[in-house]
Amino acid sequence: MQAMSQDAQPIAAQIVLDTIRQRRTTDLLKLRPDPIPQDILENILSAATWAPTHGRREPWRFTVFTGEGRRKLADLFARAYAGSSAPDHASPEAQQNQRDRVMKAPVWISLELHIPQPPKFPQWEEEDALACAAQNILLAATAYGLASKWVSGVAMISPLTAQELGAPELRGFIFLGYAAEAPKDSTRAPIGEKVRWVQE
């Protein structure tokens, strides 16, 4: 790979920093139904695989639901919710709500934790690697002008949902779509409130 010139480095850094700052969590009700092209999804998932992973264990797996395939996920969420400990788990309306939610986003991506066997590192390291992969998905989606949200409701981390996907554990799902409106601006506390420097 050709080395990046000194002049280009600040531009590349600014692009990355701008993408990080532009990422927003977007509600399902604020998405358009437009499908997302396959090549964009593949590039986003490829970005996920470049997350840091101790020993190159790559403990992540993803199942992507699009188009009519979302109906399988919708039914799975409804069954998982019915079997959960949620106060309204037996309510047909609540179960139908789980189905309806899935169809409001054009793409759903599972966040599956598959720890290679035999275990070699502490589980928290593998979980953190999956979280880094999820962040790469969110940032790559932002770079493509997509809205996103990482969700982890009872149906989305249910052992039943995990079993149906062939996943030892689930850490939720990310849904993607095109925003129906521009996201609101946001703020974060100044780094001076969160960072301590030790320089001597």
Task: Quickly describe the structure.
This protein has helices at residues 8-22, 38-48, 70-82, 92-102, 123-143, 159-165; strands spanning 60-61, 64-66, 107-113, 147-151, 169-177.
Question: Mind explaining what this structure looks like?
Answer:
- By secondary structure, the chain is α+β, with helices and mostly antiparallel strands.
- The protein has one domain: 3-Layer(aba) Sandwich (NADH Oxidase), CATH 3.40.109.10.
- It is 39% helix and 13% strand.
- The chain contains 6 helices and 5 strands.
- It has helices at residues 8-22, 38-48, 70-82, 92-102, 123-143, 159-165; strands at 60-61, 64-66, 107-113, 147-151, 169-177.
- Strands 1, 2, 3, 4 and 5 form a 5-stranded antiparallel β-sheet that branches.
- Helix 2 (38-48) packs antiparallel against helix 5 (123-143), helix 3 packs antiparallel against helix 4 and helix 3 runs antiparallel to helix 6 (159-165).
Helix content: 25-40%
* SS field, number of helical segments: 6
Order of helices and strands: HHEEHHEHEHE
Q: Whole-number radius of gyration?
A: 19 Å
**Coarse morphology:** globular
Main CATH class: Alpha Beta
- Structurally, how many domains make up the residues? 1
| Terminus-to-terminus distance | 37 Å
Low-pLDDT ranges: none
Largest sheet, if any?
5 strands, antiparallel
Structural class: alpha+beta
- The name CATH uses for the topology is NADH Oxidase
- The amount of beta strand, in percent, is 5-15%
Instruction: Give the mean pLDDT.
Output: 94
InterPro entries: NAD(P)H_nitroreductase, Nitroreductase, Nitroreductase-like, YdjA-like
Keywords: Flavoprotein, FMN, NAD, NADP, Oxidoreductase
Organism: Deinococcus xinjiangensis
Family: Belongs to the nitroreductase family.
